[in-house]
Amino acid sequence: MKKMIIASTSTIYGSGYLDYLLPTLQTHFKGIKTVLFIPYARPGGISYENYTTIAGKAFTKINITVKGIHEYENPKKAILNAEAIFTGGGNTFELVNQLYKNDVLSDLKLVLENGIPYLGTSAGSNICGVTMMNTNDMPIVYPPSFTTLGCIPFNINAHYLDPIKDSKHMGETRETRIKEFHVFNETPVLGLREGSWLSVEDTKITLQGKYTARLFKQDEEPKELESGVEVLI
To answer: What does the similarity note say (predicted)?
Structure first.
């Protein structure tokens, strides 16, 4: 029975790292003493050690210890023996590259399918979908495959942005990019706005947070999903 929080971002404007999610995480990780942190996405090229420190400071507020996967000699065993797992944001290409390089993607999928509590933010949410192909990140490395965990039957577009009214920017919108994706791919895409997240309990996926999310399907008009509703594909 899957037990996952899939969040658009770790930090919302005017708030500290994970602060807006902490009440939810306190319940989500109830009874957990140590969370295994996967820092492979490395936002801004930060070191694994410094990234783990940032995550650790947030989790101390709910009396949970964080230990980075890089601190273990065997990352596969670290995942298979974890009480709970958090994959942070950053560059999705590098995150997926490292998951393949360390041969832990299938292990991560296994423990999540078996009910190990999981938190993903940004890149750590992108990998929960069928593929990572709807990331907004630059392809700084080339992973062996774009196939990811497939714990949910659609892809995530984290940090989803709506067009800004009266903006003079003439570049493509996020919606345009997703429509381009659907020329060649059938996988639905959920645009998660900042401050929103998905709660996954086994096969039930519920949108949470203050904002709506935008669901895109091939050859269909996008739909706005209200917070609190079950996401049905």
So the answer is: Belongs to the peptidase S51 family.
**3-class SS of residue 193:** coil
Tally the domains of the chain: 1
* Distance separating alpha carbons of residues 4 and 112, to the nearest angstrom: 8
Question: Which positions are annotated as active-site residues?
Answer: 122, 137, 159
What integer best gives the mean pLDDT of the chain?
Answer: 96
What type of residue is 155? N
Q: Which residue type sits at 58?
A: A
Task: Give the residue ranges of DSSP H helices in the chain.
Answer: 22-28, 48-60, 75-80, 92-101, 105-113, 123-126, 174-184
Q: Identify whether the C-beta of residue 19 lies closer than 8 Å to the C-beta of residue 169.
A: no
pLDDT of residue 214: 98
Q: What is the pLDDT of residue 20?
A: 97
Residue with tokens 């009396």: 63
- Asked if the structure places residue 230 within a domain, the reply is no
> Is 210 domain-assigned?
yes
Per-residue model confidence (pLDDT) at position 171: 64
3-state SS record for 122-145: CHHHHCCCCECCCCCCCCCCCCCC
Residue 123 corresponds to which amino acid? A
User: Is 233 inside a domain boundary?
Assistant: no
**CA atoms of 13 and 194, how far apart (whole Å):** 9
- CATH code, domain carrying 144: 3.40.50.880
